[in-house]
Amino acid sequence: MAVNVEDDDVPLILTLEESRGHVSAPEEPPTENGGSYDLINDISSPAVGDCYPPRSYVRHNWEMNYQEAAIYLQEGENNDKFFTHPKDAKALAAYLFVHNHLFYLMELTTALLLLLLSLCEAPAVPMLRLGIYIHATLELLALAVVVFELSMKMRWLGFHTYIRHKRTMVKTCVLLLQFIEAIVVLVRQTSHVRITRALRCIFLVDCRYCGAVRRNLRQIFQSLPPFIDILLLLLFFMVIFAILGFYLFSPNKSDPVSKP
Question: Which of 114, 137, 187, 233 is deepest in the core (most CB within 10 A)?
Fold first, then answer.
């Protein structure tokens, strides 16, 4: 299997079609790392009368070991926590679906569509303005695609891990808010002041191709506490010197300090 080192999207992971022809191994309870796949040394003893286990079974074990090792490598490269490791076959299928180019392009296209709808909503240029029914329907369709994306992520992560993922929960809350507002616009057939449209950029920042933007934003948010401390210290010195300047150089005649 050819491997491209520069491609960071599923570098070594086997697809389901490649392993469909092999004999499936019996499922085991999840390990402490979350995986339920066979380990390298976890090969069952041969049956009575057999010198060695079947070749297809051993090959399947090695392919599953390679696949799980590739998933761990990709999680480390993506700076993911190991508790997001797929725990069963359904989670593995959702993981493989979420980590492919088609899913990434779907995320990017949906986010760009939601941003471009701002050009067609009131107040907009008359040449680009669309009817309320048209742009509200397009917005609901784009939001439905986002719901599908989040449902696949929930199937991969599981409900408890999903609700503990902060960025995904922020995206979910924004999605619910956008859904409610789009339904209100569609029912009333009038466009009101929609301040929440400024939150649509969250869908673009959350996509795969904006990983560098997320890293920069994370660094900015992590640098805010010491930066705020410096600003508070600067504000303290400004207040102290302002008070001293007022009492030392004030031209107010009622001020006893300023009298000759």
Answer: 114
DSSP states along 19-65? TTTSPPPPP----TTS--SPPTT--PPPPTT-SS--HHHHHHHHHHH
- CB atoms under 10 Å from CB of 224, counted, come to 11
Contacts of 2 (CB under 8 A, 6+ apart): none
Residues 6+ apart with CB under 8 A from 41: none
Residues in the chain predicted with pLDDT less than 70, given as ranges, are: 1-64, 78-79, 82, 252-260
pLDDT tens profile 1-10: 444 444 444 4
In angstroms, the CA 6 to CA 13 distance is 15
CB 121 within 8 A of CB 135: yes
